[in-house]
Each structure stands twice: as structure tokens, then as C-alpha cells.
Design a protein that fits this description.
Elements lengths: L28 H5 L1 E2 L7 E7 L23 E7 L1 E9 L1 H4 L9 H21 L19 H4 L21 E2 L8 H15 L3 E7 L1 H8 L2 E3 L6 E3 L2 E3 L7 E3 L3 E4 L2 E7 L19 E5 L4 E5 L6 E4 L7 E13 L6 E4 L3
Parallel strand pairs: 1-14, 5-17, 6-12
Antiparallel strand pairs: 2-3, 4-16, 6-13, 7-8, 9-10, 11-12, 13-17, 14-16, 15-16
Length: about 325
């Protein structure tokens, strides 16, 4: 007698997991770390920098009058505010279609648009983009961290000469030559700028972070070396650890974290050859983001027009560096 075989069955339901998987990280550590500064009321921002000058130390002849006077000057600094926007849309048919793992298509698209918006902001912060004033087809742009930390003058609204970083605080040689000694030299140069030890948070591309993990120290004798981050973990897990996240030297302390958003191509959003080979070491207290409308990114739904639910997330943001001195930058070559 013939039976019913699976191959002959019709009307079978599609078997699909009731979840959507996304392997990409959503973390935006720089954007999350920086504070929000004074609300911006115009398309340009203005703040002041100050630096104690080195003074001559000489004796004073008894009975001589004061004939020379001096003061500590302040310098005006300017920056531009950039509009950042991410638009989203769900058609009526898409909204009413049942999708596995997505109970609310509108909510899902709005949520992912916010994540993409934050990633856009992170890439701007970790860019070498300069300020730009709107003209013709050129929009307003704000300056990224890799452009603020610079030995030479920027093109638009340049940092005053007194506050441009020393060339020795900027690394531009190969990854192979980026040794512990080279790293210490960067910190020494940064410390010399502020006359004291630095305290920096570093956002490093994978190649730079890996190099820091493999820094070596002579120990215990001059004829042997030990990798700082490599040791056999003798606990129950017996794990092998090769990682350095905090470095402390006489010149200061650096907390190192990974970033995949350094020096991305802002036109395409894709990583560049410099993304894994770069790092920026900042003092978070010297940075803040200024928003217009006194608000971070927010969603705006657009009026219905028959095409479905649609909207956009945007903000007007400008990156301020209150004082550029005492910070470091690495853009290595392979």
C-alpha cells in the first residue's frame, strides 16, 4: 500500500529562525565617553585656550623699580557645526508583511537607523576631516580628532600656533619601528607640552593595539626579554593572556582600547588602509561635543504621503578641543 512520503507533501511551511542576527559591534566608545558642552546657537562655535608661558628666572637688584609688565594671554578658537543625518522608510506593504524575528518593522528600522547614526558620528570624531564653511555645494563640516592633533596649521579656523602639537608627539613611521621606546618618546613629548605626566585614553586600530600587546621589556637580565602582555595564567582556566590595556610610565598613564572607526573614508563609510594602523591618545576632559537645539540625535517622523512610514534621525554637532596640548597621535605605515 502506498504511503505519504515527505517528498510528495505540499503546503509545507517555511522553517526560518525567529531571530535576526547581526555580528557587527554597535559600540561607539568615543561618542559615549565625550561630554556634551555648551549648546551651540550659531553655525560656528567659539572658545578660548590659555597657556602658561616659560618665564625668565633672574634676580632683582635691591631698590630697582618695576619697569616691565606681562600677562597671560588667552586665544580665541573657532569651530564649525555639521549636520549629520540618517533617513529611513518602511512602505505600507513592508509594514504589514510578517517577518521572522521582526515583530515591528517600523521600530526595527528606526532602531537600526539610530545605530547607524551613532556610527556616523563616531567616524567623524575619529577622522582627519577639517572644519569647512558652507559654500555652494560644500556643506558645513566639523573637525575630527586626527586633524586637531597636528603639528602644522589647519586650513580653516586653525588652532593657534602656541597650541599646535610637537612633531615628537606624532608618530608616522612603520608599525615595525613602533616599539616601547617609540611609545615612551610620544608620551615624553606630550608631557613636555603640559609640564607634567599625561593621562590619556587611546583608541587604537587593531594593528597598533596588537603591537602594544607585544611590547617587550628586558627582564630579569640584559640578555633576556619578556613580552609585557604574555604570560601563562596559572589559575583553573589555564588561559594564555597576551593583552596590555593600561600602560604606566613616568611620563603618564595610557588606557588602550580597540577602535575600528579610525580614519574611515567618510564618503563611503568604509575603513581605509590607515584604520588598523592608527591611534589617537586624548585627555577626555579636553574634549566635548556641542549640539544645536540643545539635543543629541533624535527621530522625526515625516508626514504621510501614501508611500509608508518614513522619517529621519539627525543632529547638528561640532567637536571642540578645549586644549590640544599633551595628547598624541599615531598614523603608522605598514
Amino acid at each position: 500500500m502506498a504511503g505519504m512520503y515527505e517528498a510528495n507533501q505540499t503546503g509545507k511551511r517555511q522553517e526560518i529562525a525567529d531571530k535576526v542576527y547581526n555580528s557587527e559591534l554597535e559600540a561607539t566608545p568615543v561618542l559615549s565617553m565625550l561630554g556634551v558642552g555648551k549648546e551651540v546657537l550659531q553655525s560656528t562655535m567659539q572658545w578660548q585656550m590659555e597657556k602658561f608661558a616659560d618665564k625668565a628666572v633672574t634676580g632683582v637688584l635691591d631698590g630697582t623699580p618695576v619697569t616691565a609688565f606681562d600677562s597671560t594671554l588667552r586665544y580665541d578658537v573657532y569651530g564649525a557645526v555639521q549636520q549629520v543625518r540618517e533617513a529611513w522608510q518602511v512602505t505600507q506593504r513592508a509594514e504589514n508583511t510578517a517577518i521572522a524575528g521582526v515583530p515591528d518593522e517600523v521600530g526595527r528600522q528606526r532602531y537600526t537607523a539610530m545605530i547607524n547614526m551613532r556610527r556616523k558620528q563616531e567616524k567623524i570624531l575619529l577622522s582627519d576631516q577639517d572644519h569647512q564653511v558652507e559654500a555652494a555645494s560644500d556643506p558645513w563640516l566639523t573637525r575630527g580628532m586626527f586633524k586637531y592633533i597636528q603639528a602644522g596649521a589647519q586650513t580653516t579656523f586653525p588652532v593657534p600656533a602656541l597650541f599646535r602639537n610637537a612633531s615628537a608627539a606624532i608618530y608616522g613611521s612603520t608599525v615595525a619601528l613602533f616599539t616601547q621606546s617609540a611609545f615612551e618618546a610620544l608620551l615624553a613629548a606630550a608631557g613636555n607640552e603640559i609640564k607634567g605626566p599625561v593621562s590619556l585614553d587611546m583608541f587604537a586600530g587593531p594593528s597598533i593595539k596588537s603591537k602594544i600587546d607585544s611590547f617587550t621589556e628586558i627582564w630579569p637580565t640584559a640578555t633576556s626579554t619578556e613580552t609585557l602582555g604574555a604570560h601563562y595564567n596559572r589559575d583553573a582556566a589555564k588561559g594564555y593572556v597576551r593583552e596590555v590595556n593600561i600602560l604606566r610610565f613616568s611620563y603618564g598613564t595610557v588606557r588602550v582600547g580597540l577602535s575600528w572607526f579610525n580614519l574611515c573614508d567618510l564618503t563611503t563609510g568604509l575603513a581605509t588602509a590607515s584604520t588598523p594602523l592608527s591611534a589617537i591618545g586624548i585627555n577626555p576632559e579636553m574634549w566635548n561635543i556641542g549640539y544645536m537645539r540643545n539635543g543629541k540625535p533624535a527621530n522625526t517622523n515625516l508626514s504621510p504621503d501614501g508611500s509608508g512610514v518614513r522619517g529621519f534621525i539627525d543632529c547638528f554637532m561640532g567637536l571642540r578641543c578645549n586644549n590640544t596640548l599633551g595628547q598624541i597621535k599615531i598614523v603608522a605605515t605598514s
